[in-house]
């Protein structure tokens, strides 16, 4: 057994377990309790033992002798040995666990079971980007989840793992298709531009572009472009911090206006070489399906529509005129999107090293199929390598990490969810007796034909970072970080002629393909100098640094059509016509100087100053540089003497406040310049150029001013811990396109608008230790966010092109709609309020009702329960919101499209009271006009609140004696398991009512370590 000395710096070995829980502890029983003499008390003996958490050994536990400096650390197997005397007292210390003191008393073997300390989180260090700070001493607003939270969820995108776990962070999944995107907003929408609200992603200190790599033309099945964070393997992540207020984000300057997401990957640990493998498999299905009409109700609707319109069945009314079997019923949702996705995941890790050098090598392969008919799948492979080294004199350190991801996504060319909703329930069979696509004598468009088109994407992503650090003096450290990213994304969507009915005799000359190729490379260098020194009862910290960053991006989006054969559809040189829809190359350069000054006094009063001077190539001369800064302060009132003497139950108390400014340059490159593009037209053998943007030298930064007040309190040794924060953010100098007269030849000019957007809210987090026993523990975490968004000012809004989109005093994410007043009992059609009483219902005058589509509040409740070797975790996510009804997009009731079952409650005779107007085939212009106004009314925007069992994880750790030294854990995990909602539609979370809803996932797995 090797003895490690703290003087050699190996205390760092216990850092990986900083996220533990507080449990009461009973000291381990010793053996051989014999009396001994005073002479024997001075005798030196060697004590050995094993330290565990009751299930597995703990490496990195510090064992010291009370009132002495002799200290050792447990190895990978939790073993230790230390030379002591009989009278010594051993102290076992491990961050996240209760400290234990045990007298030696002639015990030659002392085995210890540590207990997690759920109340010791205030001593955990939080990553704040350029520096770290104890949780108890932070002045900013930072939310965090650890690998313990992430690894319990069967997800491929880390944003899915964050849902419902962080106050102030709203995340919405756009589609259930693999590789789809997520929307994330940190404390609301600050910018008028939808693409100007993305947060800054930092992976191991390296900025990672938040721009999606795809194109709306290719990624139709994904409801847009892909998520950039698909390239990050959740299993590689050690922790995620989200920086929210000015104190936390101002040091990132212009890039921190919408919050900062810090992702830290796993690192190697000292000890013998350890191999860990996780193997899991599972199934996934759609969370919910819409309740639609069956054949009987559908045909009743259709027949009634013809009666109402006073017309006979036509030759193309195949569903009711006898052409199709009127006794046939098919639940098209189950046929088209009711399949089962198969999920397989394998992850392996190799780590270890000495006290001076540690390494980690992670590998992962993931594959999942789809719920659509056909052979489609999403595959992803990840590799993460990490190396840390520290010199023997503890002055020089070097850290290096490298990650590589390869993704391949093969999906249908379009999402057929809408077809599963709209198809008549008595529509023909998909295949004929020979197994070919059934076109039923050209009476319908077979939905399976849509699957002839394919969406294929390939992504290769590399990121690398290095950190060199040298301790010049005990107080002064110089370091430089380097980073590099290289992303290559290619995707395509085909529309071959085989999607059409063969009766039309459409050949490959009508086939087409859309192709997107995007590359993005960036590098960053950040030299820094930090100084820290204790001065009496105070402590001062100073950090200065600079940033040099460059990003080169290219994108080429092409359309090609007309091929001699469908087998050549991916060869654009074989196309009759090829069009360059987007062809861009850009260079983004960024330079900054930043600093931080922190001073604390007597562990009571803390002041934190951060600032940054930014320079961006995205702005014109004289406007390229701007300064941002913040001040944060905290008062740990629980350390005051009068508080300690009079409030025994209060174990922790802190007031904190912050105010500052951040910026936003998410406007794209070259927006201030005169730019030209190719006309695409051949004139005299020459392709000319045309101006596409006007020069604006006054183009400058958006400014976001942030204010926050918060109180953090812990009671009964932090068994109950509450944080309540209030924030107010105001974003001004908005970067938008200002409309221009048509005589200028341009629709708008990019400029700063003196519009101001405000986000205010209250964030509440509650952590409780409900039970704390040797073999049974139960902790809970609750978070709640109540947020309000408001447009405070917008010069000349009524005369701008934004007048129908925004309203002063209202949120940005609104819809101006008609006010639905019911059904006319005599005519049977929808009615709406005529606000100007002119007898007409017009959009300009009568769309006066405003519906806010932002969540009113959202949050989550997470519980962790352990009993001996069992652990159960579950998370409920809840959202209070409005959304478009599932009926949105189903068409006019009475036409040849299926409808929600609720449409059966319809008007039939004068005097009827019903929820839906009379049926029509579409020839009744009054009913049609009323229906489309109904679509654009407040009747279509309904309550879409929900409570969802977002995650459930159950695991059992087997005894090492069973497998002879191999640690083994059996795992069951589920995601999106149950949804409780009154929403009339498929899934209340989806922004697109006819898109594939999120999937519920069930997986079982095995983890073993040796």
Write the layout of secondary structure elements.
Layout: H1 38-41, E1 44-52, E2 62-65, E3 71-73, E4 79-85, E5 89-93, E6 100-103, E7 112-113, E8 125-127, E9 132-134, E10 142-146, H2 147-150, H3 158-162, E11 169-173, E12 182-186, E13 200-203, E14 206-208, E15 237-243, H4 246-249, E16 260-265, E17 271-286, H5 295-309, H6 332-337, E18 341-353, E19 357-369, E20 377-390, E21 396-412, H7 417-422, E22 454-473, E23 476-495, E24 512-535, E25 538-563, E26 575-601, E27 605-616, E28 625-635, H8 641-646, E29 650-664, E30 675-683, E31 686-693, E32 702-715, E33 720-732, E34 734-739, E35 748-753, E36 756-772, E37 776-793, E38 814-817, E39 820-823, E40 830-832, H9 843-846, E41 849-852, E42 857-867, E43 870-880, E44 882-884, H10 925-935, E45 941-943, E46 946-958, E47 967-981, E48 999-1009
Parallel strand pairs: 1-7, 13-16
Antiparallel strand pairs: 1-4, 2-3, 2-5, 5-6, 8-9, 10-15, 11-12, 13-14, 15-16, 17-18, 17-48, 18-19, 19-20, 20-21, 21-22, 22-23, 23-24, 24-25, 25-26, 26-27, 27-28, 28-29, 29-32, 30-31, 32-33, 33-36, 34-35, 36-37, 37-42, 38-41, 39-40, 42-43, 43-46, 44-45, 46-47, 47-48
Characteristic terms for this protein:
1010 residues; mainly beta; 22-stranded antiparallel beta barrel; five-stranded mixed sheet; globular; disordered N terminus
Describe what this molecule looks like in 3D:
The chain has 1010 residues and is mainly beta. The chain is built from 10 helices and 48 strands. The strands form 11 sheets. It has a 22-stranded antiparallel β-barrel. Strands 10-15-16-13-14 form a 5-stranded mixed β-sheet. The two termini are 18 Å apart.
């Amino acid at each position: 057994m090797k003895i490690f000395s703290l003087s050699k710096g190996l205390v760092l070995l216990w850092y990986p377990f900083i996220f533990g829980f507080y449990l009461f502890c009973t000291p381990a029983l010793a053996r051989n309790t014999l009396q001994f003499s005073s002479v024997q008390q001075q005798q030196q003996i060697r004590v050995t033992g094993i330290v565990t958490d009751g299930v597995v050994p703990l490496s990195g536990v510090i064992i010291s002798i009370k009132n002495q400096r002799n200290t050792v650390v447990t190895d990978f197997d939790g073993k230790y040995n230390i030379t002591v005397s009989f009278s010594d007292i051993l102290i076992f210390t491990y961050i996240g666990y209760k400290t234990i003191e045990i007298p030696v008393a002639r015990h030659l073997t002392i085995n210890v079971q540590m207990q997690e300390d759920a109340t010791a989180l205030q001593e955990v260090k939080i990553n704040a980007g350029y520096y770290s700070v104890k949780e108890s001493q932070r002045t900013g607003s930072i939310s965090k989840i650890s690998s313990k939270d992430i690894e319990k969820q069967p997800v491929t995108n880390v944003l899915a793992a964050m849902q419902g776990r962080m106050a102030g962070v709203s995340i919405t999944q756009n589609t259930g298709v693999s590789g789809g995107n997520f929307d994330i907003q940190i404390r609301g929408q600050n910018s008028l531009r939808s693409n100007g609200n993305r947060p800054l992603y930092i992976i191991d200190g390296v900025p990672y572009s938040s721009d999606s790599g795809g194109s709306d033309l290719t990624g139709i099945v994904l409801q847009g472009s892909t998520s950039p964070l698909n390239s990050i393997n959740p299993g590689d992540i050690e922790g995620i911090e989200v920086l929210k207020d000015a104190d936390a984000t101002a040091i990132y300057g212009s890039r921190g206006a919408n919050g900062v997401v810090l992702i830290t990957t796993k690192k190697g640990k000292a000890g013998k070489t350890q191999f860990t493998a996780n193997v899991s498999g599972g199934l996934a299905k759609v969370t919910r399906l819409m309740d639609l009409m069956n054949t009987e109700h559908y045909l009743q609707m259709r027949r009634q529509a013809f009666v109402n319109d006073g017309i006979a069945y036509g030759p193309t009314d195949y569903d009711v005129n006898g052409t199709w079997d009127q006794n046939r019923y098919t639940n098209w949702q189950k046929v088209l999107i009711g399949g089962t996705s198969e999920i397989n995941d394998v992850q392996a890790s190799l780590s270890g090293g000495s006290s001076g050098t540690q390494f980690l090598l992670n590998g992962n392969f993931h594959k999942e199929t789809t719920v659509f008919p056909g052979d489609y799948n999403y595959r992803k492979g990840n590799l993460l390598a990490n190396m840390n080294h520290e010199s023997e004199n503890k002055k020089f350190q070097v850290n290096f990490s490298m990650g590589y991801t390869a993704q391949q996504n093969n999906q249908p060319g379009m999402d057929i969810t809408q077809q599963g909703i709209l198809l008549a329930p008595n529509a023909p069979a998909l295949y004929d007796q020979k197994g070919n696509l059934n076109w039923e004598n050209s009476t319908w468009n077979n939905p399976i034909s849509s699957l002839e088109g394919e969406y294929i994407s390939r992504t290769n992503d590399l990121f690398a970072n290095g950190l060199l650090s040298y301790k010049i003096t005990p107080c002064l450290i110089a370091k430089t970080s380097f980073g590099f990213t290289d992303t290559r994304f290619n995707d395509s969507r085909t529309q071959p002629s085989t999607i059409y009915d063969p009766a039309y005799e459409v050949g490959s000359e009508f086939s087409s393909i859309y192709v997107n190729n995007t590359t993005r490379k960036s590098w960053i260098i950040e030299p820094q100098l930090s100084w820290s020194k204790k001065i009496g009862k105070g402590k001062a910290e100073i950090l200065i640094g600079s940033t040099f960053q460059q990003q080169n991006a290219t994108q080429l989006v092409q359309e090609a059509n007309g091929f001699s054969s469908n087998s050549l559809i991916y060869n654009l040189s074989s196309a009759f016509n090829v069009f360059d829809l987007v062809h861009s190359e850009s260079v983004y350069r960024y330079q900054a100087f930043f600093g931080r000054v922190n001073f604390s006094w007597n562990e009571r009063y803390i002041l934190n100053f951060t600032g940054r001077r930014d320079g961006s190539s995205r702005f014109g001369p004289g406007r390229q540089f701007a300064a941002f800064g913040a001040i944060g302060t905290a008062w740990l009132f629980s350390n005051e003497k009068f508080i300690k003497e009079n409030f025994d139950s209060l174990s922790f108390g802190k007031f904190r406040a912050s105010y500052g400014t951040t910026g936003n340059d998410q406007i794209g490159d070259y927006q201030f310049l005169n730019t030209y593009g190719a006309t695409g037209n051949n004139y005299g053998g020459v392709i000319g150029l045309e101006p596409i943007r006007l020069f604006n030298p006054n183009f400058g930064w958006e400014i976001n001013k942030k204010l926050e007040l918060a109180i953090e309190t812990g009671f009964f040794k932090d068994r109950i811990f509450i944080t309540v924060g209030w924030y107010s953010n105001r974003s001004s100098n908005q970067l938008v396109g200002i409309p221009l007269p048509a005589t200028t030849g341009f629709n708008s000019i990019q400029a700063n608008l003196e519009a101001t957007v405000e986000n205010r809210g209250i964030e509440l987090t509650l952590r409780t230790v409900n039970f704390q026993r040797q073999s049974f523990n139960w902790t809970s975490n609750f978070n709640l966010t109540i947020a309000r968004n408001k447009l405070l000012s917008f010069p000349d809004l009524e005369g701008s092109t934004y007048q129908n989109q925004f309203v002063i005093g209202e949120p940005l994410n609104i819809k101006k709609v008609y006010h639905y007043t019911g059904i006319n009992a005599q005519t049977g059609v929808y009615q709406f309020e005529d606000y100007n009483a002119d007898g007409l219902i017009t959009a300009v005058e009568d769309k006066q009702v405003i519906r806010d589509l932002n969540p009113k509040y959202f949050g989550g409740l997470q519980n962790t329960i352990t009993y001996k070797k069992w652990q159960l975790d579950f998370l409920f996510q809840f959202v209070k919101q409005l959304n478009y009804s599932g009926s949105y997009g189903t068409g006019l009731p009475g036409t040849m499209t299926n409808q929600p079952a609720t449409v059966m409650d319809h008007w039939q005779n004068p005097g009827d009271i019903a929820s839906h107007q009379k049926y029509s085939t579409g020839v009744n212009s009054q009913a049609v006009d009323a229906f489309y106004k109904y679509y654009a009314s407040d009747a279509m925007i309904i309550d879409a609140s929900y409570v969802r069992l977002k995650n459930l994880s159950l695991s059992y750790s087997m005894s090492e004696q069973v497998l002879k030294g191999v640690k083994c854990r059996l795992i069951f995990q589920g995601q999106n398991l149950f949804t409780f909602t009154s929403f009339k539609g498929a899934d209340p979370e989806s922004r697109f009512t006819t898109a594939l809803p999120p999937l519920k996932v069930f997986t079982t797995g095995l983890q073993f370590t040796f």
